[in-house]
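FIELD: query
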Amino acid sequence: MILYFTGTGNSRWVAERLAEATHDTILSIADCLKQKVMPEELAGIEKIGLVFPVHSWYAPRVVVDFLSRLQLPRCRYRYAVCTCGDDVGKGMSRLAKHFPVDAAWSVAMPNTYVPMFNLDSETLCRKKIEEARRQVASIAEEVLQQKKVWKVHEGGAAWLKTYAVNPLFVRFTISSKGFHVDEGCISCGICAKSCPVGNISMTDGRPVWRKQCIHCMACVHACPQEVIQYGKTTRNKGRYRLADYL
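FIELD: result
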């Protein structure tokens, strides 16, 4: 079983490729949370995997909360794969306190956090995804062999990023207040459907953001009209759709 969480689709894509190569099944953490149920089919499983995105050098708080409530059975092999734009700091090491692992990897995927950064160029996106294909194939081989490895790119100032910058990011940056929709919204509701934590509702044909936002930017990138903005920082930065590069 591979548990995964995704916002813009990068981690789901990795989980799907990994499951295909290891002949495993996947289960969406977001679906479990929306249905308010915890997975019951973990008992007796030989290996359990976790795939998640890194947000500001740590796992999204919704993933941490889920793992804290999950009754993990004993199994022979447990591993985790995190996706990131570049490096993960001490994020994987910190998460291992909630989800002890025998092996861990990080996989670089196209950057999607447009409030602070520009999108990667088309050339870089394609390069990252092709490299990710090769890396996931290699990870799958090591998972099948149940190897105990730690192949995580922490980057420079790793401790500072995870234990100092991330708490500041969570406290002062993560908020729904900056989200709004420009003229041109067609009331399609795709933003509400795309939100992995069910934080968006449609009122009078317009999206309304509640207080459980995790800043995954799923709504921003999913909007077909590209009219969802976060403050003024996402204007003219383009949108990322994984399907464009597959």
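FIELD: remark
The radius of gyration is 18 Å.
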